[in-house]
Design a protein that fits this description.
mainly beta; Jelly Rolls; 6-stranded antiparallel sheet; 5-stranded antiparallel sheet; about 45% strand
């Protein structure tokens, strides 16, 4: 049976979801939230829980800007190498594919850096708060914000 819809659109909390990932086009991750040409595919939003799920394509040398996980998150690094919270040498974690990681509520990342071409899948169980060096909010990315950014691609 073929599913004609491959896009993530506004979701009903009672509908199931299926996304054929390779049929989605990569989109640029919103400007100002990362360094380098990070691409993403939004796979799901869950209005009933406030969660959102995406897969990210991160070229060598790219990084996500400083942020705090308001809710926890789980990721699966499918390809590459990722330094989380500064990596092993700076008190954080170094993820090497294939690898799984969990980020608790209020985990702060001053920089999430990709030493080599990398790809990871992540479910965010709440917003990401992108902040400046003083902790001021620059962008609060909720499931609604992720969906809006995806729809504007």
């Amino acid at each position: 049976m073929e599913n004609a819809s491959h896009e993530v659109s506004h979701q009903s909390p009672l509908d199931g979801r299926y996304v054929q990932i390779e049929k989605l086009e990569w989109a640029s991750f919103p400007e100002g939230l990362c360094e380098g040409p990070i691409k993403w595919k939004l796979l799901n939003v869950s209005p009933e829980t406030g969660a959102w799920t995406a897969i990210f394509d991160c070229p060598a040398g790219s990084s996500f800007n400083r942020h705090v996980h308001i809710g926890p998150g789980e990721y699966f690094l499918t390809k590459g190498y990722m330094e989380v919270r500064g990596g092993d040498n700076d008190g954080g974690s170094t993820a090497i594919a294939p690898g799984y990681g969990y980020e608790p509520c209020n985990a702060q990342h001053d920089k999430t850096y990709f030493k080599e071409d990398s790809e990871f899948y992540m479910t965010f169980l709440g917003p990401l708060n992108f902040i400046d060096e003083d902790g001021n909010t620059l962008a609060l990315v909720t499931w609604q914000g992720a969906q809006t950014a995806w729809e504007m691609k």
